[in-house]
Amino acid sequence: MATVKSESRKIGILGGTFNPIHNGHLRAAEEVRQAFALQKVYLVPSARPPHKGETEVAAAEHRLAMVRQARRGNPFFGSSSYECRKGGTSYSIETLAYFRKRFVGAELYFVIGWDAWCEIGTWYSFPELFSLANFIVISRQGLRPWAEDSTESLFPFALQDEFCYEKDSCYLHISGHSLHFMAVTRLDISSTQVRRETAAGRSLRYLVPDAVANYIYRNGLYVS
Questions:
Q1: Do the domain assignments include residue 115?
Q2: CA-CA distance, 108 to 203, in Å (whole number)?
Q3: For the domain that residue 95 is a member of, what is the CATH number?
Q4: Is 101 inside any structural domain?
Q5: Which residues contact 88 (CB under 8 A, 6 or more apart)?
């Protein structure tokens, strides 16, 4: 693994199953990049997501290839094969440790969805995650669900004494890293919908980039 000295860089990390990646993912990544002035956002497909059954997910090499197709044309997007190459169950704490070693001194921003945040207390070694990177929790529903919760209910019990409110949906962790909540443009697209449309033989135009649609058709993905 080559180490990149990047003391002044701000790097986003957006992981996911990407089964497949679609325009909703890409728009959210672009809005986060712009809002936080990130030099790069790396899209990281998981090898084996800990919360999904293997029969639901296309092979890791296909999902990685589609991510690479999707990010082309945007110089601010990158892709990482780390979790796919590592194999086995994908744990975020290992991915963050990898990026800290790869980009020494960079300011890392780990991007997750609101649904994932609501399950953060079930993640492997979750209390340690916040000492490794800043967090950005996004809602693609066009809503701000965190605004309806008290500070206590926003955090698992193990984290309630580790954060303090700063301002504008931002909290500070005792490590000095920040936690941000951000609503992004609602695009009513899901990977489930893309798979359903594919299986029914219908068009994927405007749901996924054309290159991703072509890859799905060419490799016969998501068909019975």
A1: yes
A2: 37
A3: 3.40.50.620
A4: yes
A5: 47, 48
Domain that holds residue 203: 4-219
The whole-angstrom separation of Cα 122 and Cα 15 is: 17
Residues 24 and 186: beta-carbon distance below 8 Å:
no
Whether 194 is covered by a domain: the verdict is: yes
* pTM, entire model: 0.91
Q: Kindly state the tokens that stand for 100.
A: 């800290």
Cα angle value 179/131/124 (rounded, 5°): 95
Is residue 63 a contact partner of residue 45, using CB atoms and an 8 Å limit?
yes
In three-state secondary structure terms, 142 is coil
Start-to-end CA span in the chain (Å)? 39
Give the angle 119-70-3 at the CA atoms, nearest 5°: 75
- Could you count the other beta carbons within 10 Å of the beta carbon of residue 117? 19
Spatial distance between the Cα atoms of 100 and 131, rounded to a whole number of angstroms: 11
Looking at the domain assignment, is residue 161 inside a domain? yes
Q: How far is CA 118 from the centre of its chain?
A: 15
The number of distinct structural domains making up the chain is 1
Q: 10 Å Cβ neighbour count for 197?
A: 18
For each of the chain's 224 residues, which pLDDT tens digit applies?
A: 556 554 469 999 999 999 999 999 999 999 999 999 999 999 999 997 665 555 579 999 999 999 999 999 999 999 999 999 999 998 999 999 999 999 999 999 999 999 999 999 999 999 999 999 999 999 987 677 887 655 668 999 899 999 999 888 999 999 999 999 999 999 999 999 999 999 999 999 999 999 999 999 999 999 97
